[in-house]
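Re-run with default settings, no changes from the original entry. Doing this only to confirm the output is reproducible before filing.
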Amino acid sequence: MRVCAVIPCFQEELRSSALEVLTKATIVASSSGGRVEAWLVGPTAEKHSSKAAQYGAATLRVMELEVDSEAKGVNVSLGRRIVDAVDELMTQSTAELATEGAPQPPSLLLFDNTELTKDVLGACGARLDAPVIADVVDLSWDGHQCIAQRPTYASKVMSKVHAEGSVILCSIRAGLFEPDEKPVKATTHRYKSPQTDLLGQVLKELVAPEGDTVDLTEAPIIIGVGRGIADETGKDLVAKLATL
């Protein structure tokens, strides 16, 4: 079985949620006799390949998507390019295994549950003709199918979802698994990014949030407020609650 952590690489440092996905991939692979792969896609993919090996990925599949704001930019939407990249990595890696004479095991593709993933996960599933389970809090493999748990009804009910297929996609909610280093000797495969039809969109640059903006994907505590917190005094009270 192949357990593949799909990691978009657009920051100077890997997000904690990506390391959590690698950790969970290692856990699932060790319990099912599978192997861990890291699919690193983005302009900093090469830079983060060694980090992925520290967290258990024995096979690294690296595809750099260049973002050059001084030239023509990326003449397609970022989401479309990610979908094309995942499709290309699946096609090429499957072909490589076939030429090696290896049997074709099921592939479990794991994503962190970021805004980018929410944009592309369904499209990736449609492209690969594969089932998708989003916002997973736990998952396992019983030898024939993926068994995942995900919250529903505003997290009041925990549902168990079963999925079968040669390829299955899951996104994992952040903050549930402590990143755990499992250094391995890794083999690196490099791929060229596929050509994508123009969609009339140009990505000029990736702008990081400034100031003390919180990334809600990885925030350990989130306090929601509504009417009644209308002035700075009320906001100060909420800020104090977050530190308790």
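The first helix runs from residue 16 to 32. Residues 48 and 214 are 23 Å apart (CA to CA).
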